Amino acid sequence: MAGALNHELLNSLDWQVLSVQRTEAGRWWNFKNVLSPFSRLWLILDGQAVVRHHGRKFELRPGQLHLVPAFAVHDCSCSHRFNHYHLHFAARLPTGIDLFSLLDCEYQQAAPVEGVTLFQRLEAIYPERKLPCFDPGREEYKRFAGLTGPAEATAGVLAGFEARGALSLLVARFLKSARHHEGMHARVTRQFLAVQEYIHRHMREPIRLADLARVVALHPTYFSDRFQRVVGVRPLDYLVRRRIERAQYLLLTTPDSVKAIADAVGIADPAYFSRVFTRLCGASPSAYRAAHGA
């Protein structure tokens, strides 16, 4: 992962364990078009299953770790039985961007020797963090991610520190194979991280081109031209995309009205918000929530 993320960014990641448990699934473990605002990590113990995402089919077999990044649409199925540990977690940068939206990696890895021990320790730290059900389409499943507080709130400071360490050890196997994902977020992170941070902190507020240019001490016209050369879109177009992505997250994790979410991401006109959301996401905010969200 040389150069993809520096040590400062990795050390600033906000890790959060949402659920961890061991489950023996059967033929009922068959779900289509699953999309969630958190990442999934599976340690396969026995049996086998299949998952499809990123245009690929993966066979899940004993001794493997498999990662499904946040916001990756996937299908999963089991023809007989599938005994596994599963961990749902978030790994976000200070800009609010999920770590794995910046990277491509090998999503299936050989499990480390200490894999079971790490999952068991996470289970011991968070005995109450279990899935309310297993069907991603049910309301209680959709809402559970927004109900989990920070590690220290339930586990104590030292246990929370240990949990982040265990999670880091498991995820590090994927980071070793990671490479730059040549998407907008990765290009912005490498060249205009301060701009990304400013957008994250001030998203609810009106933001002008001059505000973004001031962050990096450049003339607005020069900044806009340079940003487009590096990122591929104009700064204000990128701002709109960040606002819509934040709206996607809120639609998936909160019961707030579409108007309240539009206000929360800095788009005061609900009609304009709905038009832009539909253009970028292929569905209206209400339809998107009905298909995937709270």
Characterize this entry briefly.
With 294 residues, the protein is an alpha+beta fold.
Defining key terms:
single chain; 294 residues; alpha+beta; Jelly Rolls; Arc Repressor Mutant, subunit A; 2 domains; five-stranded antiparallel β-sheet; four-stranded antiparallel β-sheet; 13 helices; 11 strands; 44% helix
Structural account:
44% of the residues lie in helices and 21% in strands. With 294 residues, it is an alpha+beta fold. It has 2 domains: 174 residues, Jelly Rolls, CATH 2.60.120; 109 residues, Homeodomain-like (Arc Repressor Mutant, subunit A), CATH 1.10.10.60. The strands form 3 sheets. Strands 1-8-3-6-10 form a 5-stranded antiparallel sheet, with helices on one face. The protein has a 4-stranded antiparallel sheet with strand order 2-7-4-5, with no helix packed on it. The model has no long low-confidence stretch (mean pLDDT 88).
